[in-house]
Design a protein that fits this description.
This protein is α/β, with parallel strands linked by helices and 180 residues long. The protein contains four helices and nine strands, in the order βαβαβββαββββα. The protein has one domain: Rossmann fold (3-Layer(aba) Sandwich). It is 24% helix and 29% strand.
Length: 180
């Protein structure tokens, strides 16, 4: 797998440091609130576990799965809800944890869904932000790293369900996905 990576953007240690920093910020922001933390599957699961271990508060955890990529490197533009939440979000302070915000369509879909379900508040924490890919006006409240407009994998992010288990975030060599 490592041979498929053009270059490493953020090491395991870089990610650990940002998780600690964000965990402290979120502990302060959600002190006394018992938020519902929503992990966006599958990509954000590693980051979510790292973040919540750094948070010294009571919180509930739930999972949602949204898809707009399938096995492609470019978003289809159509967001699909493939696994809904188990928890009732009505009146809750919600913290969404994402792996990456690229076009912003998936996140906008999720935030609109949560607002229709009458959350008290919704904030977003993302490991990676790719503003150059943005097609809708949406921003995260807490950002780990900004990434260039390249196809990144590792640490939960995938291409065709591969590379999620890399301990770092790297740029996938175009030759891997351009053969299609």
């Amino acid at each position: 797998m490592n041979n498929d990576i053009e270059r490493v953007l953020y090491s395991r240690e870089d990610i650990h440091q940002v998780a600690q920093k964000l965990g402290k910020e979120l502990t302060t922001a959600y002190a006394g609130k018992n938020p519902l933390i929503i992990c966006v599957l599958k990509g954000a699961v590693l980051f979510t576990t790292d973040i919540i271990r750094e948070m010294d508060i009571y919180a509930d955890l739930d999972f949602i799965n949204l898809s707009s990529y399938g096995n492609e490197t470019i978003s289809s533009g159509e967001v699909q809800l493939t696994k809904d939440l188990d928890a009732d979000v009505t009146g809750r302070d919600v913290l969404v944890i994402e792996d990456i915000i690229d076009t912003g369509r998936t996140l906008k879909f999720l935030i609109d869904l949560l607002k229709r379900r009458d959350v008290n508040s919704v904030k977003v924490c993302t490991l990676l932000d790719k503003p150059a890919g943005r097609l809708v006006d949406i921003k995260a409240d807490y950002i780990g790293f900004e990434v260039p407009n390249e196809f990144v994998v590792g640490y939960g992010l995938d291409y065709a369900e591969r590379y999620r288990n890399l301990p770092y975030v790297g740029i996938l060599k175009p030759a891997i996905y351009e053969h299609k």
